[in-house]
Amino acid sequence: QVQLVESGGGLVQDGGSLRLSCVAPRSDISAYAMGWYRQAPGKQRELVANIASSGGTNYADSVKGRFTISRENAKNTVYLQMNSLKPEDTAVYYCYAKAPWTTGYWGPGTQVTVSS
User: So what's the pLDDT on residue 75?
Assistant: First the structure.
C-alpha cells in the first residue's frame, strides 16, 4: 500500500510559477515510475508528465518547455515545477505511482488555479 500526499497547489497569476510535491511517507519509490495527471471540470483526466525509475521523462505536448518533472528518491518525493502557467492549466493535479508489480496508486489531488 502506497500513500501519496501532494502539496504546493494554490492560486497563481497568468505567467506565474508553482512547484508541486508528491511524497510517499512510508514507501521507497525508487523502483516506481511516477507521474502527474490533471483533471479540469468537465474534462478527462490527462497525463501531464511522468518520470521513470531511471529518470527518463516525458510530457504532454501542452506543457512541454514549461513544466519539469523530477524526483528525489532519498526523500521519496517527486516534483512538478510549473512555469509560465496559463489559465488552461487550471485543474486538480494528481500524483501517481506505479511499480511493475502493482496496479498503481493515486494521491488525493491538489488544486491549481491560474487566474487570467
Answer: 96
